[in-house]
Each structure stands twice: as C-alpha cells, then as structure tokens.
C-alpha cells in the first residue's frame, strides 16, 4: 500500500518524538519515500541526523538553512506529498492547524498541501481532555484531516490515562488500511485468466499456442493496484516473480474451466485474457505415440468455451470482459463475440497491427462496450493497456 508513496512526516515537540525514528524506519521499509519536517520544538527531542539517516533524505527544520544556504519551498514540499502524517502532533501544533496559524515550515507545508493529512496526537492526560484540545480535534477533522487516536497508559508526566501516541506499527497499519479503503475497487473480487492452455496428445506432446500471459499478468497487477482482491488463473507460463495476487496454475482448457467455474459466482469482475484452446485431442494416448510409415491423423473435439459458459451464468452487476484476437473482419467478429457471449466489454487485438498480440511487450487494442460504442487506443506497453482496460471497467461501475 505504501510502496513508492511520497510521505511527509511532521514531528512536533513531544517526548513521543523518539517513536518517529521507528515510524520512519517502518515507512521506508514499506517502500515509501519519506521526507521529515521537524518543528523547532521537535528538534529539541530528536536530532535531524537520526531522522535524515533513517529516511535517507535531508530533514527540514526551517525555511532557510543558514549553514547550507538552502531555501525550502513549502509549496513544492506540500505538492510533492501523497500523504502527510504528523506524529507526534502536540497540542500547540493542533491548535495551529485548527486556526490556520502558519509560523513554521510544517504548518506552511500543511496549508499548501492538497493530499490527505493524518495526525497522531501525543500529550498529557489533562491537555488531551481539555475542551479546547477536543474542539481543535473536531475542527481539524471537519477540514477532512484524520486523527489517529492516542492510546491509554503511563504518560511521561507519571500520570496514567489517554494521551500516549499510537505505536508506529499501529500508525502504519492505520495508513495502509485508509489507503486500501480509498481505492476504487476496494471490496471487489476479480478473476483474470492468462496464458495458453496445453491439450495433451500423449505423455510428451501437446497442442498449445504462443501466448506468454503478459497481458493477463498486467491486468491482474492493475486490478490489485486499484484495490481489488484478485485471483489469476494461469495456463502454462513462467512465474511472474513477485506476484501481488492469488494464482491458480492450470494446464488444459478443462482445468481452466473448472478453476474459473469454482470461483466465478463470488467475483464482481472477470477478465478472460487466456488464449484457450478451442479443440483438444479426442483420445489422449497413455504411451508415447511411435512414428509410423504412413501419415498420422489426430481427431480433435471441442473444448468448453469458458467465456461463453460464464456469460450464461452471469448475474446482477457482475462484469465480464472478453478478448478477441482476429486477423480479418476484426470489428464484426469482436462485436459478434460480445453479444453471443453476453459480455460487458470486449477487447479486440488485431494481428494486422504490428506490436500487438502474443509475446510482445506492447499491444494495440480497441474496446467495444455493451452499447457497441468503440474506443480505439494507440500502441502502448501492456502495463498501459491494462490501465486502459481497467478504466473502461471502472466506467461501468460508476
Ligand atoms: N475463450 C474461452 N474459452 C475457449 C475459447 C476462448 O474462454 N474455449 C475466451 C478467450 O479467453 C477470449 C475469448 O473467449 O476472451 C475469445 O477468444 P477467441 O479465441 O478470440 O475467440 P473464439 O470465441 O474462440 O472464436 P474463434 O477462435 O473462432 O475466433
């Protein structure tokens, strides 16, 4: 969730500032780019050197660093951030956020930023309970900021009660959940098929095709990026390394049909990208077939059209997306498959387009929706094509 996210961590004057060091470490470990802004009081509790070493970035403490002569642009910093977390936030900075007081770099960045802002308060029991603090909390929440509530326990003053800053692990979990919930496909289940199927002739031979599975992997990745819970049903393809989705490996069209059938009812979005064999040998020899003097004839029988079968079972708001790989009269064939297989979208690849189709890292597609409206796309990387396909899916969901 936090990978490659640009995060500004604001640290205010509180003994809980020591926990910021752990927080930076966890955020960096989760793959985030972290820049720390220390308020002048924050710098009394933890050194810029500690936070700079852990974040691998210079720490900002003021607009103008006299030693280096560097001017820190608060607007640029505010716009750089995908999210701001102020942990710990003191009663003082909370009051500034609530009233718009802008007297240091952190408060200026806060006012300049357009992203979500999270705050994790840390203060003594009575300061936390004070009506003015509670009103400030209400006000900043009303501005759209999110408060990560403090926990109870022994406080630095010796008092016991509410006011302890949430633990760094809790803060990271909170941020990850918040990001997850804000994703457009959060709570949706998706299934994607990818790759070829192999239909056995005998123990050493099969009928297959050149599909690499790359388009299906890219779609599965993009659906995960949008927050969906994704299962990939893959024919024989190389493992894609680190995969962010569940993967079910199958070999034949029949195995793919069974795997898809088992989970289709629970899916909201299904994208059938696999190049499924239309025919399989009618009889599979149990021993290797020996060469004869005469020609050899292989009898084939039809496999199940998985997409068409799922189209018949589709219910309610389930979205079903198919592919059509054509060499001639492309648009008519694609529109025919859209209607015949009861699809919501069909993605047309024409083998007449150079750089489209099997094995290449690029693709050129045309999408037809249910109303047979056509959108033509440029040649793009399969990652970008996956984004276009998922945007078309999001359009249906709106
Ligand atoms: N498909 C499927 N099961 C099959 C064959 C195809 O689920 N047995 C799916 C593919 O995953 C793709 C779509 O159907 O999403 C269209 O596949 P394609 O091979 O282009 O078309 P067919 O319907 O098989 O028709 P034809 O081969 O005659 O063009």
Q: Mind telling me the C-alpha Rg?
A: 28 Å
Tell me the strand order in the biggest sheet.
14-13-10-15-18-19-21-22
Q: Give the CATH class of the largest domain.
A: Alpha Beta
What's the CATH H-level superfamily name of the largest domain? CoaB-like
What small-molecule ligands were found? Answer: cytidine-5'-triphosphate
Number of domains: 2
Question: Can you summarize the main beta sheet?
Answer: 8 strands, mixed
Low-confidence stretches: none
Mean pLDDT: 94
Going by CATH, the architecture of the largest domain would be 3-Layer(aba) Sandwich
The amount of helix comes to: 25-40%
Strand % is 15-25%
Q: What does this protein structure show overall?
A:
The protein is an alpha/beta fold. It has 2 domains: 6-181, 3-Layer(aba) Sandwich (Rossmann fold), CATH 3.40.50; 189-397, CoaB-like (Rossmann fold). 34% of the residues lie in helices and 25% in strands. The protein is built from 13 helices and 23 strands. It has helices at residues 18-29, 48-55, 74-80, 91-99, 105-112, 125-129, 131-142, 168-181, 214-225, 253-264, 306-313, 330-340, 382-397; strands spanning 6-11, 33-38, 64-65, 70-71, 83-89, 116-121, 146-147, 151-154, 160-164, 189-194, 199-202, 205-207, 229-234, 246-249, 269-272, 279-281, 300-302, 319-326, 345-350, 362-363, 365-369, 374-376, 380-381. An 8-stranded mixed β-sheet has the order 14-13-10-15-18-19-21-22, sandwiched between helices. A 5-stranded parallel β-sheet has the order 2-1-5-6-7, with helices on both faces. Strands 3-4 form a two-stranded antiparallel sheet. Strand 21 (365-369) and strand 22 (374-376) form a beta hairpin. Helix 1 runs parallel beside helix 2 (48-55) and helix 3 packs across helix 5. The protein is elongated. The mean pLDDT is 94.
